[in-house]
Amino acid sequence: MSSSSGLTFKLHPLVIVNISDHYTRIKAQQSGSASRPLPPAPRVYGCVLGVQTGRTVDIFNSFELHYDATQNVLDRAFLESKQEQYKKVFPKYDVLGWYSTGSDIQDSDMLIHKALTDINESPVYLLLNPTINHAQKDLPISIFESELHVIEGVPSLIFVNASYTIETVEAERISVDHVAHIKPSDGSSAATQLAAHLTGMHSAIKMLNSRIRVLHHHLVSIQKGEAPYDHSLLRQVSSLVRRLPAIDSSRFQDDLVMEYNDTLLMTYLATITKCSSTMNELVDKFNTAYDKQNRRAGRSTFI
Hints:
Blueprint: E1 8-11, H1 13-29, E2 45-53, E3 56-64, E4 67-68, E5 73-74, H2 76-89, E6 94-101, H3 109-115, E7 124-128, E8 141-151, E9 154-162, E10 164-166, H4 170-180, H5 190-224, H6 231-242, H7 250-302
Parallel strand pairs: 1-3, 1-10, 6-7
Antiparallel strand pairs: 2-3, 2-6, 4-5, 7-8, 8-9
Helix pairs in contact: 1-7, 4-7
């Protein structure tokens, strides 16, 4: 059943990337073996953010939710905290609805939908199907609205399908174009540089961990009387320990979160850039073939 509200939905690429990343992370955390096979594909939940201008609804961003599917309980405290945080960064964005993953709507979805009506009286439900279907050409995404229908004499709230379009604003196009023109200076690929950087960080952390273990073992030996007191070494260890609170300050946490968000943004933009480049190549090839056919048809008609 199609929606009769007359709303126009515009979905932005960042929402699709966020949901895909959320599902991939949760699925990667599952483990299985020969004796214990992999559990069924998980369902992830979150809120979608955006702006409604008149009859046009732009869905710009999203964030995750904590939902206990076994007891059908939504973590309201976490939702309110995330909503407040996003309001500080994006004051114009409102919670438009929620998202989930799966091949079809489930009975429990209406419970979540009704639980969010105190935030938005008519929330939007975005459903992404993570199952790969090579025959499907459209995006595996559906947007639903809720409408009150009388079924067998009983008023019931049901989901109705709503149409949508993929939209990008000028800032998103500029960012994607900027990332597309960034190339490594030494000619190596970005993936190779990232792997080398992560390998170096892993080696440094591993070395630091081994040195800390040596210090801890030596201090335990001193405490047990198995090793003599070395005042010079103890002063150096004390100086090292005093530096630990420096990474527990609010300023350090803010800088860490900012750098983490910047890294995620660059990852998202790189993914969007790759998809946009593929689409541009397809459009260019189609236009070239179409122009050739028109020229051939024009010459044959002229003769």
